[in-house]
Amino acid sequence: MVLFAQVFGSLFGLLAVVFGAFGAHALKKTFTDDQLKSFETGVKYQMYHALVLLMLGFNFNLDTGYQKAMIYCFVIGVFLFSFSIYGLTLTGSRGNKWKFLGPITPLGGLLLVGGWALLIYNLVGNFI
Questions:
Q1: Are 54 and 5 contacting, i.e. CB atoms less than 8 angstroms apart?
Q2: What angle do CA 17, 23, 25 make, to 5 degrees?
Q3: For residue 96, is pLDDT > 80?
Q4: Mean of pLDDT values over 72-83
Q5: Which InterPro entries match (predicted)?
Q6: Mean pLDDT along residues 79-92
Q7: What gap in Å lies between CA 100 and CA 68, rounded to an integer?
Q8: Which residues contact 6 (CB under 8 A, 6 or more apart)?
Q9: How many Cβ atoms are within 10 Å of 123's Cβ, its own excluded?
Q10: Which one, of 64, 76, 79, 57, lies nearest residue 118 by Cα?
């Protein structure tokens, strides 16, 4: 599970840099201000959670059930949250918005919240 967290943290970090540059340069010309802000939100959340995954992968054994669940929440949450935003903004800018992605974004956000809750549980559990 440690390697899983480190690989996905690294992959999400790499893609956040690529997508951020793509958004700042190529998409700036075709996106509205609201679309660009939404896209940037996806990139920011992706990078934040890439760093969290790396931190967890380098500092925890990630061998308990709730620690594994925490990592899965972060990985799946980033994928659902950020990538649905990318899909919504890219298709919206071309006039054919994939509305089915709309409900996926909050589901991803809920998984991210769950990952943070499990991290708090992990940290507090060590002191009780």
A1: yes
A2: 100
A3: yes
A4: 98
A5: DUF423 (IPR006696)
A6: 97
A7: 29
A8: 53, 54, 57, 58
A9: 10
A10: 64
Question: Please, are residues 40 and 71 in contact by the beta-carbon 8 Å criterion?
Answer: no
pLDDT at 29 (0 to 100): 87
Three-state SS at 102: coil
Count of CB atoms within 10 A of residue 58's CB? 11
One-letter amino acid at 47 equals M
Alpha-carbon span 4 to 57, nearest angstrom: 8
**CA pair distance 28, 25, nearest whole angstrom:** 6
Q: Please say whether the beta carbons of 85 and 42 come within 8 A.
A: yes
The answer to whether 36 touches 27, Cβ cutoff 8 Å, is: yes
Whole-number Å distance between alpha carbons of 105 and 108: 5
Question: Hey, what amino acid is at 84?
Answer: S
Contact 47/78 with Cβ under 8 angstroms?
no
DSSP state of 100: G
Joined together, the tokens standing for residue 69 give 């669940």
Specify the pLDDT at position 95: 92
CB-CB contact of 51 with 11 (8 Å): no
